[in-house]
Amino acid sequence: MAGSAAKKINPPQEQDHQPGRETEMHPKPDYMPKFQGNGRLAGKVAIITGGDSGIGRACAVLFAREGAEVALVYLEETEDAKITAAAVKAEGKQALLLRGDVGDKTFCDNVVGKTIEECGKLDVLVNNAAEQHPQDDITDISPEQLQKTFQTNLFGYFYLTQAAMPHLKSGASIVNTTSVTAYRGSPQLLDYSSTKGAIVAFTRSLAGSLAEKGIRVNAVAPGPIWTPLIPATFPADKVAEFGSTQPMKRAGQPNEVATCHLFLACEESSYLSGQVLHPNGGEIVGG
């Protein structure tokens, strides 16, 4: 977040619910793919969590343009999810809408079961759903907040991956969404940053575990991206300057991140596993 000298690049706005609704944002995030498809995911089936909006929506539409059928997992933002499903169908592909909480293991088992039932197989899993709740001091983080943040951001990744494993064959891909905060931290997002650091370790460990099975596991660590999570997290004045302190002096758009997920999901990255891509507007981070 920037100080008082930061440039205002978005209209001030905020939302009072997590993880936020894209229908209430202005301007709307740019999620449509920039280029024609080339069949990179032709014949594939993908599950995308947090698929209703933001990075998840951009991934869903891009994957569909590249030939994949898509199962869209979302918490409660039905209007956003329907818009995403319509965009997927406009690309000529199936969109399966699955509403529920990824922090619930039974729901995650059902997500995979319904995807197999409707689509017949599973080739790509994109673990992307997340929530964040800023607090000024670690003592302000309640046990309930800590549990919920880890339940959504980390446990959900484990649950869905566990459910998917019996169906993933050699050549399958798992792509996890972590964050720049895993590398540089975030003083007001202690629990969120901790989950994102854990996702990096999860990605690297799982990649080693699954290498001999021919299943690749990688991650994407976005910087400040214009998604519903931003007005649902920060006060209006902070939203107005969101992204302005990056080297590129702006927030990124979801369609500038989804291309990273696509690359890691498809065979163009066939010699990459356990790696993290960093679409963050030019910020240099270690690791």
UniProtKB/TrEMBL annotation:
It comes from the Bacteria. This is SDR family oxidoreductase. Belongs to the short-chain dehydrogenases/reductases (SDR) family. The keyword Oxidoreductase applies. It comes from Devosia oryziradicis. Pfam families: adh_short_C2. Keywords: Oxidoreductase. Residues 14-31 have a biased composition (Basic and acidic residues). Residues 1-33 are annotated as: Disordered. InterPro entries: NAD(P)-bd_dom_sf, Sc_DH/Rdtase_CS, SDR_fam.
